[in-house]
Amino acid sequence: MQFHHHGYVTTDPRVQPAAGTGRSRPAELPGETDVLIVGAGPAGMVLAAQLSQYPEVTTRLIERRPGRLEVGQADGIQARSVETFQAFGFAERLIAEAFHLTAMNFWASDPGDPERIVRTQRTEDDPDGISEFPHLIINEARVLDYFAEAAANGPARITPDYGYEFTGLTVAEAADDPYPVTVTVTGARDDEKTIKARYVVGCDGAHSRVRDALGLKMTGTQALHAWAVLDALAVTDFPDIRTKCAIQSRHGSILHIPREGGYLFRMYIDLGETDAADNGAVRETTVETAIAKANQILHPYSLDVRDVPRYTVYEVGHRLTERFDDVPPGTGRTPRVFIAGDACHTHSAKAGQGMNVSMQDAFNLGWKLGQVLTGVSPETLLKTYSAERQDVAARLIAFDREWSDLMAKKPGELPPEELADFYTKTAEFPAGFLTEYPPSMITGGTAHQDLAKGFPVGKRFKSAPVVRVCDATPAHLGHHARADGRWRIYAFADAGAAELNAWAEWMRDGAWPDSLFDIKVIYPEPHEQIDISRTDRLFLPRTGPFGLIDYEKVYAADPASDIFTLRSVDRRGCVVVVRPDQYVACVLPLTARAELTDFLAQSLEAPVAAKTDAGEAVEDHRGPRQLPEPRDGAREPAALSDLLPQTAEHPRG
Amino acid sequence: MQFHHHGYVTTDPRVQPAAGTGRSRPAELPGETDVLIVGAGPAGMVLAAQLSQYPEVTTRLIERRPGRLEVGQADGIQARSVETFQAFGFAERLIAEAFHLTAMNFWASDPGDPERIVRTQRTEDDPDGISEFPHLIINEARVLDYFAEAAANGPARITPDYGYEFTGLTVAEAADDPYPVTVTVTGARDDEKTIKARYVVGCDGAHSRVRDALGLKMTGTQALHAWAVLDALAVTDFPDIRTKCAIQSRHGSILHIPREGGYLFRMYIDLGETDAADNGAVRETTVETAIAKANQILHPYSLDVRDVPRYTVYEVGHRLTERFDDVPPGTGRTPRVFIAGDACHTHSAKAGQGMNVSMQDAFNLGWKLGQVLTGVSPETLLKTYSAERQDVAARLIAFDREWSDLMAKKPGELPPEELADFYTKTAEFPAGFLTEYPPSMITGGTAHQDLAKGFPVGKRFKSAPVVRVCDATPAHLGHHARADGRWRIYAFADAGAAELNAWAEWMRDGAWPDSLFDIKVIYPEPHEQIDISRTDRLFLPRTGPFGLIDYEKVYAADPASDIFTLRSVDRRGCVVVVRPDQYVACVLPLTARAELTDFLAQSLEAPVAAKTDAGEAVEDHRGPRQLPEPRDGAREPAALSDLLPQTAEHPRG
Prior knowledge:
The structure is a homodimer. The first copy, chain A, is α+β, with helices and mostly antiparallel strands.
């Protein structure tokens, strides 16, 4: 966490100074906005938190609920989501609050006495260390709270406009209309209101009206299997009540998930196959029936339910829209309306996917909107959103269908080990790490992948331990990447740094504003051997109104856990470019200079082409989106003598 | 973090339900209060946070400042303090915000060119892993913010009464006055007010008026050495600007300390010895003079100071009061007025001690006041506060004097290695872990110390890794100990648990309310081998209005890092009793039953003597201090059918 560089910060440094649109943000919904987000669920809130880093942009978020969500549906948090929370600055708080899912046990009918269940297998949740972050369970409402806080504390100071319901939209085809999307909403007082927007994002859930307005259809399976979802406080003799379990008895199946706080749990209780002619009758299944069924399945154990904070019945549907924006195939124009999250894809809740994928949809889209709206990228960048995320959703649904089918199988239909094996083998997928974007204007090819095999192009940048040189502090390289919309360029140095220094000198001749590019170096030598005063000044940018040196871009390998070895980085060094949403964009040799600028020029208009004057420009390292304006308690630069306390304080003792 | 056991909690679980005095707390300072704390610095705030766990008690905290502290003096946070933050529930947030002090470098005149300084040594801050927590630097103001939050979020909902200045007190000698201390204060509107209190704690700093009112004197050295304290933002070529350094040149000395946020630093600049006849003239040293001096010392490096958020001159004084309460030696009565923190002991800031020791003073006193005021302990318990803490302060001052003298030595007076050696060898002291309370009514003897050599009686309980059995979650045993005023009884099981089970059965025959005693078991076997349904129900207490089972008291050794080996725990098992302030009170064999009850009966009146009926009492495991009252969104226990949603929700997909 970096602060004080605009002057002393006395209060919580997580609250960034308001800037731009955040300083004059009207309380009422305005008639025009750059971005209108519809729906304050996981996708909408992530988008708001991301766009709050762009105070040049006006963003409004409407939500039909009158206020914050109190009890959410989703609760599974993949490690990939926790990485995302880290970038938004609240991972450590949410981790402290959540249930940590470290194991999954499997139960099945005892072959010797099929009326009884017995534990057949224990599995570890992440035996291979897919992420340094944990797999968590926590209520969706709390996740939204944290993102809402990040949105409110960002420079653009975004807060949801509650009590507004989306009723329709039209997109003007005239190219000269700066606000081509016209949206109608009804407010809490039933007054209809029209809002014109440059871009609209429908994050309004499985029954999305934005999706309907675009004429997009969800296609896929019809509901085939019904599950009762029971959030309960209970007294039981079932010994694994605090462990995630898949339980398959001759009376049906339960997916059992302990919840945050040490007492609550959620059971997905199998209600059997539903008939298309059933006409939703299964949804009338009472909680008493569900509890009775759970007791049957759990026999010889029993469940004495004392409180039910939430109970619902749902039928599994695996559905997907053909695209996530308003541009029909073959149409030349760039998209103006997007949909994200459950509005585009629905699936069973049992692999703990929905909320996670929705958040990644928004993380993918947010920085793209930010870059386009701040004029650094062409509008064509926005086409990559649907292209990238529709494919991810399709693969998710295929996985989820397979998992749900396995879960729904009766004992005897498959050996108990098979379910456990599937779970273990596919761990990377439910953890959120199988996403691999294909080549595009923001994802390069793999010609130089061998230089850093542990940073596969198109996959998320997998952090590794390093040591920060300036203060000898052990750090996780990826954890310094904030969700601030910046590209990361990691320069892995060759031993002795001859190539690295030549590359840095060349880079200094170009325009790489710190506001867009966070350029870090990682030396292969131990930190004591790095003389920071001989590090190229590319890696020591000046920042803030005082022109201070930012020392936090210079790292060394940790001999105890060498990032060059862990991630198979070539000892000749290389450059790893990472997108603002943390996916590896390309890997290049330190000598491949034209390739670097050519690659970035595909999606960035101004900065790469231009040349600066020589010398050290004073850049604000948090980007143009953290304008160097004083916050309460901060000081403007002035003559030193003006800045000093006039009287020395009394001594302490 | 445990919650939901009184019903579903939708908002931040760190906010505990208000109870007792917290539900009807008057905004205005009342005429009578159980505890009156004077001063909202580190000691006062810790005390407020601790007493907020006792909603049966009325606590008020007056502070003469009009509002929160904006820029504090202290900034060094020992690992022991971070352990304390963990117990109060905010360690992970403060850690994320603070500077991590992992190294200290030493600089001295270059023998070949004495006008230049060179780096002579690098040392690691905690090479031996004294604590699993880091050594931090963060402004005192933020530490106070977090404790203020803990005080406000505790059941008693304590917030400071700002703008009130303490002017005097008298203590009634009549034994029948329930509020024997009469305090006068002046308010913001200059109105004098009288408050009667059962107990008063002066946390009002080095110039304590509570101390003066008690007629206590600070004795010790007069100021001998002056230091300029410069908090600055600067551009420099000094390569260790982000590393803690002791710099000794022929022009004087600097203790250099990087600060939180990546840019700010603090320099203690040596201003030389002061003459008693100097009459404070050294305090007029200007910031320009101090900066010029720093530049001389740093030569050949230079410091271009751009902003000075704080500058002060102070002279080192090592002073201590003879006792920390109002009871003169030989007086039979129990104390009514206490002083804590800088009010009792002052010393140089350079070993980073002051704030830390002050917080431990308050952590020592808080639970004692809580236990006496809730009637579970005799008033004599309060005598242990001054007895324990005065000795700690005396030893601190002796250490600090030695350190300051070394730091103030001129080059040539001692070899450069000596300073570094002293720093490294004494690391446990400045980290806050050399405190060792002697035997008393709350600290037992060491007759059975051999059963758990790694938990020395009288020293703080040093946490170690374990695995929680119910959910296979790796945990740090000590981190589950909250600052909730409860005693901890850790039962280390013998292999096979025969002795453990006999002990548990005997314990169940006594009265050990979960509100006072948090009783945990640690098995030596791996967690998979522990059948939680065969664990004695002593370790699975019922809790909350629903009588739910608390599963979070049953642990197993982690084979990768076995607590029995790490802490030299005898394989025959043993009992380790830990005080509410985290100090080991005694170590006993599982068979030493009378010793256990006799020891606890010294300081606890009711609970140990009494016997309960057989059967499982429904206890609230967070103590009488978290009354089972519903919070917003929680439900009262009722018939199951009343508790259920009447309609199943719409399915998601």
